[in-house]
Amino acid sequence: MTSAPLAAVTGAEGFIGSHLTETLVASGHRVRAMAQYNSFSSYGWLETLAPDVLEHVEIVLGDVRDPGSVRGLMEGADCVYHLAALIAIPYSYQAPHSYVDTNVTGTLNVLEAARSLGTPRLVHTSTSETYGTAQTVPITEDHPINTQSPYAASKAGGDRLADSYHASFGTPVVTLRPFNTFGPRQSMRAVIPTVIGQVAAGERTITLGDLRPTRDFTYVKDTARAFLAVGTGPAEQVVGRTFNAGTGGEISVGDLVALIGKVMDTALDVREDTERLRPAASEVMRLVADASRLTAATGWRPGHTLEEGLAHTVEFFRDPANLARYKTGIYNI
């Protein structure tokens, strides 16, 4: 009997990583999941997964900034999904060195381990923020890179390393560039959980930053399927390439708040908080994806509308046990 393929996931304890872990198990994989080492032995969102999922998951504590941790995670893996990253844009203004350590050096450690171990496939995670404000729409993978925050710059650095390892050493890397993913388990640093969390906690005056930017919001289950698609698709179709994952639709933050109010059947009053505004030249005003390359290579398409995804997210936050995990009354950076 052939054993199930082994997938290794960095950043598995996080929002997208925990959903990807579920998706991998559902598709027949064993998963070795790295959660960042901490003295509480916390496994993050992995602790909330169903027992029938966790029986196929080996959880290890480690850190992508440590080459030994990374190599131990990746030994014997058929595919490695590299999601570990510092992701909050506001905090990147305060701690840019930390972002380089994790998002650049951490990625280098993953690439070096893949090169040394002969890992059959490595899926590297990028971000739509590397494009900056859209110069042409929809945004294809050939759009210029314009990093408007230290976070975006650190992710672009990791992307360039991934490209260079494929070109220099033949490392079988594929890069997935998700646009704005949302859904259950997302942190309050993102706009959708910020709004839904405040409403679920009883607030009717919502505090946000700039309401003008537009984003292409993709439900997390669809993003997880995009990772699986490039991790298991034919090598000749995906290896050495970068793929956008998004819906092709866009909505402004202001219109999004109104839609959330509709889904939650609640009238909302929005107040702008200057503390939540990005520096003027750092704000990305428009992002909307062209994911046709991913569809052509793998057949992936989003399976949820924005309203459907919001309804699932609202259901999650309305569960008192879930809401209790969040600090809805402060600005989470």
UniProtKB/TrEMBL annotation:
Keyword Transmembrane helix attributed: no
A Pfam family matched in the record: GDP_Man_Dehyd
EC number annotated for this UniProt entry: 4.2.1.47
InterPro entries: Arna-like_SDR_e, NAD(P)-bd_dom, NAD(P)-bd_dom_sf, Sc_DH/Rdtase_CS
Protein name: GDP-mannose 4,6-dehydratase
EC class (word): lyase
Limits of the NAD(P)-binding domain: 9-312
PANTHER family reported for this sequence: DTDP-D-GLUCOSE 4,6-DEHYDRATASE-RELATED
Record-linked CDD domains: Arna_like_SDR_e
GO molecular function: GDP-mannose 4,6-dehydratase activity
Gene3D superfamilies in alphabetical order: NAD(P)-binding Rossmann-like Domain, UDP-galactose 4-epimerase, domain 1
Species per Swiss-Prot/TrEMBL record: Streptomyces cinnabarinus
Keyword terms, alphabetized: Lyase
